[in-house]
Amino acid sequence: MILQQFKDTLRLSIPIALCLAALPTSAEPATNAIRIDRVADKFALQDFSFEVDQRTGQAGIRLEYTYPPANVGSDDMHPAPDPKIVTVPGLTYDPATHAVVYNDGVERTICATAAHHRMVLFNGAYMKPTGACRVSSRLAIHERNGAWNGDRSQTLDLYFDVQHK
Asked: Diameter of the chain by CA atoms?
């Protein structure tokens, strides 16, 4: 009888454990994340890159948006926002090392280094990400008037964060 109870418990606990393991992890940004942009929730972040203004030497993050395929053909079809470059306090270009660097006041992290595209008819420079700095997005719910009247809206918030080693 004890063996049968153990088998019944095991049979019940395995599916529950599998279901819990399949739950998505929280989409909260890292604790050191900085919100860098907010757009309507109907758009998605397509890509980001580190950019340097050759005239001023100022570094920024280029954000490119897209209209997700799931929304194509819906009644609410709008073009995605134009790409934009955002600046982040502490994000600079270091001409000595040819790198985009983030300094949070405690630690200096290299986010991207200069690299070159080499093709038959084109040779250009770009900033190659190191993977230490990233941009992530998550949906955020905003309530007005305490949401007594159900007045809620959703946005796509974008965050910059650094992976300290």
From this structure: 81
The mean pLDDT value for 107-132 works out to 80
Q: Which two tokens stand for residue 65?
A: 């948006």
Q: How far is CA 51 from CA 84, 125, 149, 159, 160, in A?
A: 11, 11, 44, 17, 14
Residues 29-76: pLDDT tens digits?
Answer: 556 799 999 998 888 899 999 999 878 889 999 999 988 766 556 655
| Separation CA 135–CA 162 (nearest Å) | 9
Give this prediction's pTM: 0.70
Separation of alpha carbons 149 and 28, rounded Å: 26
CA distance 54 to 45: 25
Instruction: Return the structure tokens found at 165.
Output: 């080693």
Cα angle 64, 135, 80 (rounded to 5 degrees) comes to 20
Burial of 91 (0-12, 13-18, 19+ CB in 10 A): buried
Could you give the CA distance from residue 77 to residue 79 in angstroms, rounded to a whole number? 7
